[in-house]
Amino acid sequence: MSVSSRTIGDLDNREIAGKLNAASTLCLPFGSTEQHGPHLPLNTDTVIAEAFTSRIVARWRDSYDLWQLPALTVGLSREHDWAPGTVSHSVTGMTAMLRDKAAEIVRALPARNLLIVNGHGGNRGILEAVGYEFAGDFGLNVCSMHLGALISPVPDRGLPEIHAGKDETSVMLVLAPDLVRRERIAELQHSPEAAAVRAAILDPAVSWPWSSGDARIADNGVIGDARNASVEHGQAIIDRVVEAAGAVLRQLRENQKVARR
Question: Looking at the domain that runs over 8-260, which CATH code has it been given?
Answer without folding.
Answer: 3.40.50.10310
